[in-house]
Amino acid sequence: MTAELERLFVHLRFPSISTDSTHADDVRANAEWLKGQFEGIGLATELHETPKHPIVIARNEYEEGRRTVLIYGHYDVQPVDPIELWDSPPFEPELRDGKIWCRGSADNKGQHFVHLLGAEKTIQEEGGLPLNVIFLIEGEEEIGSPNLVPFLEKHKGDLACDIIAVSDTGMVAPGVPTLGYGLRGITCLEVKIKGPSGDLHSGVYGGAVANPASAAARLVASLHHDDGKIAVEGFYDAVIPLEEWEREMWSKVPGAADDDFLKTTGASAPFGEPGYSMAERLWARPTVEVNGIGSGYQGEGSKTVLPAEAMFKLSCRLVPGQDPDIVQQQVISHLENHCPPGVSIEIEKGHSGKAYHNDPHSKFGKAGQAALEKSFGRAPVLIREGGSIPIIQDMKEILGSDSLMLGLALPDCQIHAPNENFSVENFEKGIEMSRALLRELAK
Prior knowledge:
CATH topology of the largest domain: Aminopeptidase
Strand content: 15-25%
Number of strands: 18
CATH superfamily of the largest domain: Zn peptidases
Helix content: 25-40%
CATH class of the largest domain: Alpha Beta
Distance between the termini: 35 Å
Mean pLDDT: 97
């Protein structure tokens, strides 16, 4: 095992689960270890306290007249449940089949650590970095980065930069370097449907009193037409359509054909908004998805009740042009207008984040593409990401800088799931990509 991998393994052994208060000490210990790593390569490093978990800031000495890049990542990780589905202990990294198996290996410790190692190698071989570099590694991304926006606003002068580099996204296929230039936004809702004051006997009262479970099912079904198009009034009004060059390019992206997505997901057939490929639906079209639904008896066998309540959780993935607050209200109005008689509806608003989009053909976009090509040996593909990283848009609005999304996670890396993994090849090439990026951005 290389010395670089051994250091990554130490990083991975911290159970830095930000959502679990019992791991608060582990999160802090991980931040302090990272601080030591940055100090060890000669960067001035500070641990900034927040109301929850610390933010690590590291930088080289600022030189006037040079460009500045801010490299963003996060050291917190997702919970590991269900633990019984892991093939090896989630915080004991293992090398198997050319992959690093551990929670946080791809999301995001392995991906941000390549940038630290790239900076270290550059300093060792060249005596310094070719531009001004700021690392910002936070400990709350997996809980929505609640304290990062106030931190950015307070320190935006100190964090001023020309461009932001983020490796917290993915590659479309092994060996295919990928530059992301967009992210979908998000807005969430939780809905409760209430009927009688308590559960009722389904024989004595069924057919005479509205059933909240049936009402919830009808409401969920009302959100889409039978062909998969979203039925919420006004939902598509502000959507900025795909450009033809994007559709043409995406049709040729390796690993992005409908059959490829079906193989990865295990689904039997595509489904969604008509007129679009699966890649187009995932990267550039909005959605309304049911994330959870429940009501009534859930145990073994029958219990003939008419439940008093039902619930479902929704998330909408948004694209450029859509305002999360407007979409949230459109969905609320739809649900209220379609609520069946005999039940009441309560809707709780969840978290939101705007979509992000930039020009991949800008000078910085071309620099990112050049760095990927030099490290992977082939021209990168350009995609938008289907997921959401709301802080990327927040950083653009506060710091005024776009982000290069240089993802290294493969489609089967199992982020947020048991058996998370990160390719050793991508770890090694990521270090070279980071070094090439510094050189390209400095030109």
